[in-house]
Amino acid sequence: MANLNGASGTDFPWRRFLYPFALAGAAVVGGWGLVAALAYLLDIAAHTATVIANTAGPIGVGGITLKLFTSKR
Length: 73
Fold this sequence. Notes:
Layout: H1 14-53, E1 59-61, E2 64-66
């Protein structure tokens, strides 16, 4: 007698393999998301450093002055 839901005892258990692959796929996508976010933040930091380097004067905080990229003119 056949089962009413169409499954027999010889069917391959796809669900047993689907969950680990789904978790691995989610971990890979999350890892690439972290890499993309880090690359974006490093890009913003590089642009910020470029803007600071192109300012006219030195940068001072709390009485300590830092002169970035001094010119030899």
